[in-house]
Amino acid sequence: MKCIFDQNSSCRRCLRNNIPCIVKPRANASANHEAIPIEVGTTPQSWTNENLQSILSRLNAIENVLQLNSDGVESPFDDQLGNQSEEPEDAALIGLWNAVVELKKITRLKSSHVWSRPTIKQLWNDFHINMPGLHFLPSKQTFSAPTPLLLSSMLYVSAVRHNSPDLAILSSDYFVVMCDAIANLSIPLAPEVDGQKRSSTEIEEAAFQNVLGIILAGLTCEASITTVGIWISIGYRLVLESCPKEVDERSREWQRLFAGLQILDLEHASLHMSCPIIPVQAPLSRLRISQEDDIYSLTQMMHTGLTHFTGRDLPTIWSCFSAPGEWPLLTTPFTAVDGAVIRDWATQLDRWLARFNTLTRRTTSEHDRMLIFRQYILHRLLVLSIYHPARGFNLFSSSTTSSERYELLVSARAALKMQRDDKSIWSNWDFVMVTWAALLVLQGVEGGVGEPDDFPLVQDLLNTLRAPHQPETYFRNQIANQLEASFQNISSPIEQNGYVAMSDQDHLTWSIFNEMSLQFADPGQWPLGTEM
Fold first, then answer.
1. List of long-range contacts for 377-380, beta carbons under 8 Å, 24+ apart
2. Is the dihedral of CA 313, 316, 321, 327 positive or negative?
3. Distance, CA of 392 to CA of 402 (rounded, Å)
4. What is the pLDDT of residues 367-384, one digit of tens each?
5. Is 442 helix (H, G, I), strand (E, B) or coil?
6. Residue 268: which of 312, 317, 314 has the closest Cα?
7. CA 180 – CA 322 distance, rounded (Å)
8. 0.85 cut: is pTM over it?
9. What is the rounded CA–CA span in Å between residue 132 and residue 146?
10. What's the CA dihedral at 113, 115, 116, 122 to 10 degrees?
């Protein structure tokens, strides 16, 4: 918002707001300084152009020393203060622009095109219009006054999924801004002073938004950014310190937020086979979600299963993408206890689907059922894949039975069909698991146990991953490169006569999932999502 001078004693903005005008022009200001009326004779020395130029020169020297105008970079507030007299302010966006000002203060990125008001406004609006709902927060959240961290996450998520090349290319810059905002939680630029102290309600609201911002950042960075685990730790500490003391409607929102952070933690742990940060039970009773909730049941079984296999240096699904061809050696053999844990995990997952994916549940909408079915398919694939990386990612290794191969390929094809019919998938973990499914299917094709739909399903996923206008370094391009390389190396034609036959002994020892579970939902019911 610039002070624009007329022939009055005050600038037009201050005159309109009936406030004293105390503006002091910058050295590089474009305003016509001679238009500022000066009352001659009120000071011992009359003002002249030479005196004014001398003062401005000294001010410019000070700015140079402080690097306020180095390299032609605009002041962080230039854009915030600009164009206000030309365009009326939207009162609904005041909270947004206040957050932008605060965000600029804590980031190393001062590029003007990132802070352009039209750009920010479009990304902000597109996020609220096109962003899919979060499963752990049933009601879509709208924040008129976001914290800098939440705003940075929204801008990054919106840019990285945008179909406009001019906006999508900004995603790498907004990623830097988002990381700076997260870092500021641990290493603030300045300590809080007495004049900045906030009420307990304001502190709680800010913490809620910051944790949500961390979750959004994690969902779009898990797998590719190893520090996501540290971000989760920060979010966990914020939850413990800031959640309401009373059990009311607001505390129930914190319960859902905690569940979302726990899901992110478990997804991160599953990709790297690292120990989960958040305990299986919330340490504070007011954070514990109902045992009748589908998220509660899913996190319980996932936490129990993962903690049995973490810390043993097992090869991971993500290592297939991060270091292709460099398969780590298995140092710890699988035991009968490992097999029992896998079977129990699979049984609980089947029961979970049967319990929550049913029309008889009054609290479950059709959309919720589809989300539950998606989680079932991807988690089923995860459970079946625990052993596979340790076998060199080889479906046809001597230690892999035909029934294991059959069950893994059935689950992989189900994941690909789901992706084909559900374009609302957007989180990194979902895309890693679906791309992992495609790699398994291509292995099956090369081994002579392919199906006619395999290539079209894989190609559809590649088209989704190769969305236009994405930076080459973007996560989806990275996993698409690995998938495309495997696709191009296929040398064997698709066999039309089905799978390799299973022996009775194989069937009795390795049919751990109920195959009928895949029929719980009609594929034609999947929603048609849209990309930004």
1. 377/411, 377/414, 377/415, 377/418, 377/518, 378/415, 378/429, 378/430, 378/433, 378/434, 379/298, 379/302, 379/349, 380/346, 380/349, 380/411, 380/414, 380/513, 380/517
2. positive
3. 16
4. 777 888 899 999 999 999
5. helix
6. 317
7. 25
8. no
9. 19
10. 110
